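Sat 14:20. Reprocessing the chain from the morning session after the first attempt stalled halfway. Input below, unchanged.
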Amino acid sequence: MLLVEDNVLNAEIAQVLLEDYGVRVDTACDGSDALEILQSDAVRYDIVFMDVQMPVMDGHKATMALRSLEAENPERRRTAVVGMSANAFRRMWRWPCHLAWMIT
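Finished this time. Tokens:
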């Protein structure tokens, strides 16, 4: 799986937890880095855990770019993307489906 997280500590914690369950984890530091990895034909990922708020390219833009890439190449298998956020503030959840589109 590909873990996309700009916060080094959060990435390390998530990676350790996932690896404890036997998951092979590759990491990217932002959406742009993730998109570069996902565009390569070297590795195909079953799932991507994508932080929503990151510098350079956020999770929303990276997921939209990935979906465009997949649409341009019908033979390419669709990659599951799960949006993640460490933002637990109530104001973020004003819209009930704020992250629903990222769980694809």
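Confidence is low (pLDDT under 50) at residues 95-101.
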